[in-house]
Amino acid sequence: MHIIHSGHLNVHSGGPALSTWLTIKGLREKGVDTDIVMPPIDPGDQLIDKAAKPIYYRQPKYGTLAYVPKYDETVKSIGDADLYHVQGVWMLHGTQLARYAMKHRKPYVVTLRGMFYPQALAHKRLLKMIMRRLYQDHTLCNAAAVQATCIEEMEHYRALGFKNPVAVIPNPIETEGLIDRPIPEKPQFRIGYLGRVHPRKRIERLIYAMADLREKLPDDAELLIIGGGDNSYEKFLHDEVCRLNLSNVKFAGFLTGKEKDAAIDSLSILVVPSDYENFGNIVTEALVHGVPVIASTGMPWQELPKHNCGWWISNDQNSINQTILSAYMLGENKLKTMGENGRELIRRNYSVEALGTKMKNLYEWILGIAPKPEFVFI
């Protein structure tokens, strides 16, 4: 079985690129011949993993949203595929791959990547309405299946009137070299944020929590913000730290590799304060490190309290404050137990191996060589 994907595998593309790469890695480990076609990497960026070995197409003249010249020639040079997989929406190169598949009477899958949540569609609403009418809805309607990462995402997709099969397959997380390590001792109570620094992420709520709880948390308690992105929003966060006279809020910036692993390992808890997230790779990243997570109910993470590895709460300021304080009051040993529970959840349901198997099963069903998996909804 040969599959050709379209997407991005550069570090600066963040979570979607990581999920795409781990999906491909999981498929390759299951013996599926898998390639990816992607744009050239910009100077200052890098490939997410040297083992990825993508095929680069010619850079569009007018940016990543633009039509890619001679795209079909690039795809044809890879060889015949049994099925094509479009990782994400809006980008024209994804639609070009779908059209190539239709032209050659081959099935294709589209991964939504959270882009059809109501909140996501509301951002640049007019532009997205135009793009949907011009090409995106046609690409989705003709897909053999669409991948959603959770039931909630599938429901949002269905609410827009789409009728094709939906496979609910979460994003995979790399566990190799991480999940079997002992959870390190935590010399101080450290709260963490991990991800893109952007106004939608509502990181200021964690800064306000540190101000509100300064008399209730120990003197060495700390908030560590890991990530980069919107410079003006980051300046606002720094200004708020100064205004509130906080000395226990640290900005680590954008980290990768061992530096990122060490930063996550140092956390007592991770907090995700945004109003909504599609899946939240940051949750699985924390859990694989044995770090319990506080996630808002705008995320599909009901499993956290169910498996005693975190909290699923309203993301108003008072709820965030009280849950952080409750986590501190548990003590290090109980937090460590929650961390072990989180690792077990990841091992069973979110590992590269487990989700590589699911994706392979989806492809085999589409190609008519296996029965419909239980995670596919017609």
From TrEMBL:
Stretches assigned to the Glycosyltransferase subfamily 4-like N-terminal domain: 14-171
Pfam families: Glyco_trans_4_4, Glycos_transf_1
Cross-referenced InterPro entries: Glyco_trans_1, Glyco_trans_4-like_N
Keywords: Transferase
GO MF annotations, alphabetized: glycosyltransferase activity
Domain Glycosyl transferase family residues, every copy: 186-344
The protein, known as: Glycosyl transferase family 1
Native species: Duncaniella muris
